[in-house]
Amino acid sequence: MDMPPAMAKQMLNAVQQTEEVEYSCDDVYRLMDEYVELVRRGEDTSKLMPLVEHHLKMCGDCREEVEALLRMMDSDPQR
Amino acid sequence: MLKRTNEQWISDLRASGELHEVAIKDLRDIVVSGLPAALSGWISPNSPQFEGLAEEVAQETILKVLSHLDTFEGRSQFTTWVYKIAVRMALTELRRSRWKDVSLESLVETEEGPASPQLMADSSVDPEVQTMQSDMIVRIQMMMKEELSERQMMAMKLIAIHRMPMEEAARRLGSERNALYKLMHDARLRLKHRLAREGLDLGEIFAVFESR
After folding, report:
1. What is the mean pLDDT of residues A23-46?
2. Which A residues, 39 through 78, put their C-beta within 8 Å of a C-beta on chain B?
3. For residue B114, is pLDDT > 80?
4. How many CA atoms lie within 13 A of B9 on its CB side?
5. Given CB 3.0 to 4.6 Å as the disulfide criterion, which of A68, B43, B65, B210 pairs with B38?
6. Is pLDDT at B168 greater than 80 in this prediction?
7. Which CATH class is domain B6-99?
8. Contact B80/A65, CB-based, under 8 Å?
């Protein structure tokens, strides 16, 4: 497998941040609506939902969905 | 549009007749009006594909909301829950569309043949450092080969090297995103444990790659 140093660093960075127990994408999806409301209220999500927060560091797909969800909420005139 | 509480949304969507019809229309409207912001950076609202996508996402979201109404636990606003469903639907479609012309075979073909660690090292750095980086890469590759299954290696190639979204990689591998995340988590853990067994300190490894 071609692995330039930048790629090796990125992969090792992910390995370094790996925890024995992590939430899966389904776990995070179940909590995502609650999570984004905490974010919008300015709550400390790293304390309130540390496993969700950690998953979002590891999973680009879930991170993209949270970002899109926040943009969608910000555009809602009823909020 | 009527501003509803969570309970009113549930009740109106479960009702029959006009109450139900109005609630469905409002649901469609909030999804369609929120999508331009949600999908900014993905697709322009002026794109010819946008309208069709928004309508399709709205329809699919409504169907899913109605069939999963019992699963809404009320831990967020009802509309946040609906947005979550719409965002998942929209991004799934957009990811698939972005990657539709990239075949798994073409990605695998570019990986064929043993890669030379000398070529992989950063050629802008000191030759001695390059050698250290090459040696480290060979060691990491060896660990990956010994610790990871073929499926884990393939998933890592698609996600970490080709930047394929987890969801798309899972679809290509005949799996689901959740299962693929767990497979990748297991791969990362195996590598973490292996590094620990070998007494390799990640800080020292990073220092090798950061040397010039």
Report:
1. 98
2. 58-61, 64-65, 68-69, 71-76, 78
3. no
4. 25
5. A68
6. yes
7. mainly alpha
8. no
